Amino acid sequence: MMRIDPFVRVAGVVGAALLGAAALSAQQSAPPTPGPGLDLINERCGYCHTPNQVFAARKTSAEWPAIVQSMIDRGAELTPEEQKVMNDYLVATLATDRKAAGAAGH
User: Fold this and answer.
1) Which sign does the torsion angle of CA 13, 19, 60, 47 carry?
2) What span, in angstroms and rounded, lies between the C-alpha atoms of 59 and 70?
3) pLDDT of residue 47
4) Burial of 54: CB neighbours in 10 Å, binned 0-12, 13-18, 19+
5) How far apart are CA 2 and CA 81, in angstroms?
6) Under a CB-based contact definition with an 8 Å cutoff, are residues 14 and 63 in contact?
7) Are 64 and 91 in contact (CB under 8 A)?
8) Average pLDDT for consecutive 10-residue bins of the chain (106 residues)?
9) How many C-beta neighbours within 10 Å does residue 7 have?
10) According to the model, what pLDDT value does residue 94 have?
C-alpha cells in the first residue's frame, strides 16, 4: 500500500477548502439593484422575514407575482400600485428566467 506524506495530505485538504471557498464566493450575488421595488421589499417584507431571504429565493418571472400575491394574502400591506412596482422589480432583477424573457421580448 502506498503511503501519502502527511504534508501532501494536509496541503490537499487545505487546497480543496480554498477551492470550495472560492467557488462559494463566486456564487454570491451582487448587491440588490436600488430602486422603488427594493425600497418596498426593505420596508414591507422585513416584518416576517429578512430581505436577504427574498434575494436568495430562486423564482421565475411567472412565480414572483404569485409569491407577492401569496404574501398579500397572508397580510403584507401593498397597494395595487406598490404590488406592480414590487412585481416588476422582482421579475426584472431576480427572476431566474429574466435573460430568456428579455431576449424573447426583443
Assistant:
1) positive
2) 14
3) 86
4) buried
5) 69
6) no
7) yes
8) 59 50 51 93 91 93 97 96 97 87 46
9) 8
10) 94
Contact between 79 and 85 (Cβ < 8 Å)? no
Task: Work out the angle at residue 25's Cα, subtended by the Cα atoms of residues 12 and 60, and round it to the nearest 5 degrees.
Answer: 130
Record the cell numbers describing residue 45, joined without a space: 417584507
9 vs 99: CA distance, rounded Å: 43
Cell 395595487 belongs to: 80
The Cα diameter of the chain in Å comes to: 71
Those residues with Cβ within 8 angstroms of residue 98's Cβ, 6 or more apart along the chain or in another chain:
61, 91, 92
Q: What are phi and psi of 77, to 5 degrees?
A: -100, 105
Whole-angstrom distance, CA of residue 30 vs CA of residue 70? 26
| pTM as predicted | 0.66
